[in-house]
């Protein structure tokens, strides 16, 4: 397979100013007629051929300026159509046949539950028609869709609606026009028998926009929350970034088969149904929060991605990192800022730090790829967002807003680069970000060592930075790192918060005139995506947990304390007096979880015990059995000290009001369920009874799922019955059944893997649906280390069998599954050899997709 390099970027030889498309929808033979207004680009040679992408297209007709082309005028091979001897400006007409029914890759035009839908990012448009399928070719579009009226009464495309009417033979048509130039990856089309909920939004300049959410008719009662989240997102983007919506209509369509969460197609977002449908009885508070953030994310792309798009796919973080930052800020404003930050950072540690520390490490702006599908990663998305956040910290809120205004205004309607974005930050603020740019080009997580000295009223803090080599990058130069910090004395804060600028390999910062030696609260609010190594004794830790004025750092200090205890229990780290330390830790978190002045959601985060996978990420060598045992002991140790408090917390946080998915009620339920989770560390008859009662009496899915999932993780005799009753109750609802699959994928016990294998044959499982694959195979491989890394290699056998099977059907999803193996080099030797050799064998296999080949090769290299 061919590698593509950032350094080889060249402007396109031809641009397409306008596209007219006609679709005659048919399950197996959809006819796509395209008329492209093509113009030679400035600087292109007069004899440059027109080169278009096309994949799995059956070419029926081709004409230039109305003249049909003979076979000697063009070639179509290896997914490229080349037309020679074309004029400087002309109309190209093509007619192709495609087979949506056979499209199992879910890229291009495909069918989900009898409905036509599309997914064109990153390179799916070429599976619909011949086109320069690259993001720097921007065109206006008009689209006509024809289809059978009874089977597909709803016909949608991007932009504003035009004419519609009936045709012969029971068919009908609808026309759409999108006046905003867009790259082909933002094209979308939907045809199906759909119901919709409608609302409207009046923009800041007084224009009324129709809002519609389309779903299969039986899901119509699950659209209200997404519609409400959409209106709040539109308002927030006007208030926070000055961004107004720009079409007469904004539509969201839910589909059951989708490779990702959702897609920001202009005016016609397509969503994985798991990221849009919610009702109180079927969705948890976590689902509601996720839906809110994804609706916001896709909506925010209308400016950060659509109006200003990416020049090439190496610039993916330009739209994704910035848009994640925007959706994170939205969530922080809608809910609790501290809790939102904890959750975002937890996710960054879980996914991105892991990526940065292994064979898949790559810069936020990668330098090469075989298929860009493999670079929709935590590094591009989540670390990309952290880079925007750091620039905001360096600039301050006012200059940051000036910079985003400048960026949007200057690049509106164009395909931009990271350089345009950082350049706008510099121009609006006068701050030199030359060194900061290394964050975009250098992979790896900087490790900061903090040492301190105290001398007669002067506190000196020395920060040293180092980044380990990553694939293809051996030497790393120091980065520009914003360190938000404060000093905490025995009675509370001692100096005002400061942002230190760490730019050298090592720098010392001094603070004079202090009465007593402080403890530094470093990287407040996680001001930079780095790891910090420092020696803190138990007293200093307890001071930060109890008195830090930065809530994030109170949580982070407690979390680090828990991790050190877990590592020592797993035999991976020395810790003096670990028994006493565990009691100190339990007492420290008890103070927080019982402090009613603190938000319940924050207290719930403090009470949450790191998972086995979390612990695996933090140790030098992964022994899944030792980690599982350490976590079991840790939870039981906490339970011994906190039992009474947990029972009280459970009762005090019962919610009796009508269900509301907002932060207040959700926080209470989170705290109550976190208390129950710890009580279930060693479930007595009474605790199991409590969980059963919660499951049976629940009037919302948060409580029902909270209880059944805990029973599913236990070895209580009630387990099987609780699971089978849950299935019987919900088997008609695929999204709820996915939860049931996840809980069983995560379950422990000697026969855990056998049960997972049995589930792969269950009626609820379907290899053709990515949500099912992720729920069962993904959850098992990523979050059930004991079963996945079973000592006899049977977990690996199941995993690779499924990856191979899936690769034939849906390479994007197969390749993504492989990320579950990225820590294989840190496994204990026996498992490392077993997993490593399977990866190497896969990489050498003939007939793999480019997606899976690229991942297997990078992983095993
Ligand atoms: N921009 C969207 C990315 C996406 C995608 C990428 C590859 C394959 C399928 C896909 N579906 C959606 C989603 C987003 O970040 O908003
Ligand atoms: Zn996005």
Assembly state (oligomeric): single chain
Strand order of the largest sheet: 6-5-9-3-2-12-15-14
Provide mean pLDDT, rounded: 98
What is the approximate shape?
globular
Main sheet summary: 8 strands, mixed
How big a fraction of the residues is strand? Answer: 15-25%
Low-confidence stretches: none
CATH class of one domain: Mainly Beta
Helical content, roughly? 40-55%
Cofactor: Zn(2+)
EC number: 3.4.11.2
GO molecular function: alanyl aminopeptidase activity; metallopeptidase activity; zinc ion binding
Organism: Aquisalinus flavus
Task: Describe this protein's structure.
Strand 5 (58-64) and strand 6 (67-68) form a beta hairpin. Among the domains are: 4-193, tricorn interacting facor f3 domain (Immunoglobulin-like), CATH 2.60.40; 731-861, Peptidase M1, alanyl aminopeptidase, C-terminal domain (Zincin-like fold). It is an alpha+beta fold and 861 residues long. Helix 4 (337-356) packs across helix 10, helix 6 packs across helix 7 and helix 9 (538-547) packs parallel to helix 11 (578-593). The chain has an 8-stranded mixed β-sheet, with no helix packed on it. A 5-stranded mixed β-sheet has the order 17-18-19-21-20, covered by helices on one side. Strands 10-11-16-13 form a 4-stranded antiparallel β-sheet, with no helix packed on it. The chain contains 26 helices and 31 strands. The structure holds (3S)-3-amino-4-(1H-indol-3-yl)butanoic acid and zinc ion. (3S)-3-amino-4-(1H-indol-3-yl)butanoic acid binds at residues 119, 121-122, 259-260, 262-264, 297-298, 301, 320, 373, 376, 812.
């Amino acid at each position: 397979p061919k590698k593509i390099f950032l350094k080889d970027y060249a402007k396109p030889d031809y641009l397409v100013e306008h596209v007219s498309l006609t679709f005659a929808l048919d399950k197996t033979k959809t006819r796509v007629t395209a008329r492209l207004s093509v113009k030679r680009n400035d600087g292109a040679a007069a004899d440059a051929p027109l080169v278009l992408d096309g994949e799995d297209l059956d070419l029926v007709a081709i004409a230039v300026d109305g003249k049909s082309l003979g076979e000697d005028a063009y070639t179509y091979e290896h997914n490229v159509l080349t037309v020679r001897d074309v004029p400087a400006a002309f109309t190209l007409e093509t007619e192709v046949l495609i087979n949506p029914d056979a499209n199992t890759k879910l890229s291009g035009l495909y069918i989900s539950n009898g409905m036509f839908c599309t997914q064109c990012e990153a390179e799916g448009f070429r599976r619909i028609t011949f086109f320069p399928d690259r993001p720097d070719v921007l065109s206006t579009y008009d689209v006509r869709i024809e289809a059978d009226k009874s089977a597909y009464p709803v016909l949608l495309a991007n932009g504003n609606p035009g004419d519609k009417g009936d045709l012969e033979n029971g068919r009908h048509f609808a026309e759409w026009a999108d006046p905003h130039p867009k790259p082909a990856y933002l094209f979308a089309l939907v045809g199906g028998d759909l119901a919709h909920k409608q609302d409207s939004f009046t923009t800041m300049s007084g224009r009324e926009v129709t809002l519609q959410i389309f779903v299969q008719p039986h899901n119509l009662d699950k659209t209200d929350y997404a519609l409400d989240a959409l209106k709040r997102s539109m308002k927030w983007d006007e208030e926070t970034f000055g961004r107004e919506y720009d079409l007469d209509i904004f539509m969201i369509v839910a589909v059951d088969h989708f490779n990702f969460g959702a897609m920001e197609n202009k005016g016609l977002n397509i969503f994985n149904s798991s990221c849009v449908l919610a009702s109180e009885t079927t969705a948890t508070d976590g689902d509601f929060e996720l839906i809110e953030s994804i609706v916001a994310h896709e909506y925010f792309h209308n400016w950060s991605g659509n109006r200003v798009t990416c020049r090439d796919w190496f610039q993916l973080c330009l739209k994704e990192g910035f848009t994640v930052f925007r959706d994170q800020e939205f969530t922080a404003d809608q809910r609790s800022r501290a809790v939102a930050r904890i959750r975002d950072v937890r996710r960054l540690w879980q996914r991105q730090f892991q990526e940065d520390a292994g064979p898949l490490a790559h810069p936020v702006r990668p330098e090469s790829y075989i298929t860009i599908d493999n670079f929709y990663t935590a590094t591009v998305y989540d670390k990309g967002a952290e880079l925007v956040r750091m620039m905001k910290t360096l600039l301050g809120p006012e200059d940051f807003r000036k910079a985003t205004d400048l960026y949007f205004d200057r690049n509106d309607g164009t395909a931009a680069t990271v350089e345009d974005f950082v350049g706008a930050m510099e121009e609006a603020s006068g701050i030199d970000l030359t060194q900061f740019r290394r964050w975009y080009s250098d992979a790896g997580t900087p490790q900061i060592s903090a040492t301190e000295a105290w001398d007669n009223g002067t506190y000196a803090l020395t920060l040293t930075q180092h980044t380990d080599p990553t694939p293809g990058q051996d030497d790393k130069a120091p980065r520009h790192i914003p360190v938000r910090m404060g000093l905490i004395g025995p009675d509370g804060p001692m100096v005002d918060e400061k942002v230190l600028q760490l730019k050298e390999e090592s720098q010392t910062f001094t603070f004079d005139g202090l009465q007593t030696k402080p403890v530094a609260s470093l990287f407040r609010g996680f001001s930079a995506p780095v790891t910090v190594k420092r020696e803190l004794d138990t007293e200093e830790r307890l001071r930060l947990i109890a008195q830090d004025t930065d809530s994030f750092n109170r949580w982070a200090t407690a979390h680090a304390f828990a991790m050190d205890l877990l590592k020592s229990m797993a035999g991976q780290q020395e810790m003096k007096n670990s028994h006493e330390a565990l009691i100190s830790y339990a007492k420290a978190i008890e103070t927080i979880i019982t402090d009613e002045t603190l938000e319940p959601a924050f207290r719930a985060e403090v009470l949450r015990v790191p998972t086995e996978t979390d612990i695996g990420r933090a140790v030098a060598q992964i022994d899944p059995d030792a980690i599982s045992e350490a976590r079991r002991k840790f939870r039981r140790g906490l339970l011994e000290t906190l039992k009474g408090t947990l029972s009280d917390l459970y009762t005090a946080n019962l919610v009796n009001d009508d269900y509301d998915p907002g932060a207040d009620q959700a926080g209470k339920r989170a705290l109550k369920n976190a208390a129950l989770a710890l009580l279930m560390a060693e479930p007595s008859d009474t605790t199991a009874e409590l969980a059963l009662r919660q499951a049976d009496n629940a009037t919302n899915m948060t409580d029902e799922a909270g209880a059944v999932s805990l029973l599913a993780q236990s070895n209580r005799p009630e387990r099987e019955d609780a699971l089978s009753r849950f299935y019987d109750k919900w088997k008609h609802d695929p999204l709820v059944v996915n939860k049931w699959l996840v809980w069983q994928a995560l379950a422990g016990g000697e026969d855990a893997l056998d049960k997972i294998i049995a589930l792969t044959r269950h009626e609820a499982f379907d290899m053709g649906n990515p949500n099912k694959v992720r729920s069962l195979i993904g959850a098992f491989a990523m979050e059930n280390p004991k079963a996945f890394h079973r000592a006899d290699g049977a977990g690996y056998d199941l995993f690779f069998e499924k990856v191979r099977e899936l690769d034939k059907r849906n390479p994007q999803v197969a390749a993504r599954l492989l990320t579950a193996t990225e820590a294989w080099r840190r496994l204990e030797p026996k498992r490392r050899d077993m997993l490593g050799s399977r990866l190497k064998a896969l990489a050498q296999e003939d007939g793999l997709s480019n997606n899976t080949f690229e991942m297997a090769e990078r992983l095993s290299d």
